[in-house]
Design a protein that fits this description.
The protein is of the alpha+beta class. Helix content is about 20%, strand content about 30%. The protein has one domain (about 1-60). The protein has helices at about 5-10, 55-60; strands at about 1-5, 20, 30-35, 35-40, 45. The radius of gyration is 12 Å and the shape is globular. Bound molecules: flavin-adenine dinucleotide (FAD).
Length: about 70
């Protein structure tokens, strides 16, 4: 589970929506569901299962890293 700082997304998020994320500029675009969002903190929560290249790279990120 990641809590991600993304104020613009948190501001306009609606139930049922998902985000497209990329590990870096060359990364594949992968869809992940928005599980929760906090407009005041400007964060969105995502939960993902490690299945392939992008989710493996994401699972190795540490607190404070960006993607
Ligand atoms: C609208 C939408 C919302 C999604 N929300 C979430 C979410 O909230 N959390 C989440 O964990 N995933 C979610 N997914 C699935 C997620 O996008 C994929 O798991 C991700 O793109 C895989 O990227 P990857 O590069 O890690 O794996 P890839 O390298 O693209 O895939 C590696 C291999 O794993 C297989 N594979 C892919 N997904 C799965 C799976 N789920 N189970 C078993 N095998 C699989 C692929 O067929 C491929 O052979 C969502 C997908 C969609 C379309």
């Amino acid at each position: 589970m990641f809590e991600v700082k993304a104020p613009l997304v948190a501001k306009s998020a609606k139930p049922g929506q998902f985000v497209i994320v990329r590990i870096d500029e060359k990364g594949e675009r992968i869809p992940l569901t928005i599980c929760d969002y906090n407009e005041e903190l400007g964060t969105v929560t995502i939960v993902f299962q490690v299945v392939g290249a992008s989710t493996t790279k994401m699972s190795k990120l540490n607190e404070g890293d960006s993607f």
